Amino acid sequence: MLRVLLVCAGLVAIAVVLWSSWRVDRRLFAFVLAVVVIGALLFGVGYWRTADQAMVVIAPDQVRLSVEQARGMETGIRLSGRVYNQSAWPVALIQGRAVLQECTAPGQDACREIGSAAFRVRQHVPVGGSYPYSQVVRLSDSLLADPATPDSNRRWHIEVLSVSGYASNTRDGH
Q1: Residue 100 class from Cβ within 10 Å (0-12 exposed, 13-18 middle, 19+ buried)?
Q2: Which of 1, 136, 150, 167 has the least CB density, counted as fewest CB within 10 Å?
Q3: Tens digits of pLDDT across the chain (174 residues)
Q4: What are the transmembrane regions (predicted)?
Q5: Contact (CB, 8 A) for 138 and 93
Q6: In a shared domain, residues 143 and 63
Q7: Do 70 and 155 sit in the same domain of this protein?
Q8: For residue 171, is it within any domain?
């Protein structure tokens, strides 16, 4: 909605400048009109070129998120870790689900889910690279389990639900 208001305000401003220049001097109007047309052409070419940076869907199993730290906050739990990109495309957006599990004993595989929350990570991760991330998930900090504590019966598991990447794996758009 804000983008639409910004475009409308820009169009009104351009119309006012053109109208004012028409009333003052015809040569000034011609100059202002030429500047507006050149600007519109450059804007159009820039918009058209961004279509080359279209998004592609990446298989969720090609991207992995680790949890290295969990801290309680007023708004939820902040998870920090790394994003590992093993796909052929640079990653742009990851939609995942943070699952907190409670196990019967430390290191056991028999665990039950005690909390989960969906989240998004918007971050450029190059092909074959890994970058740190920090994301707040909307869970009560009473569920907090720090992965740095090995004797904890609670552990975090990140499910990658969907991943979007850039269609071009270079910065120049080719």
Answers
A1: buried
A2: 1
A3: 787 888 889 889 989 988 888 888 888 889 989 998 998 899 888 877 776 567 899 999 999 999 998 888 888 889 999 999 999 999 999 999 999 888 876 666 778 888 899 999 999 999 999 999 999 998 876 777 555 565 567 888 899 999 999 886 554 444
A4: 28-48
A5: no
A6: yes
A7: yes
A8: no
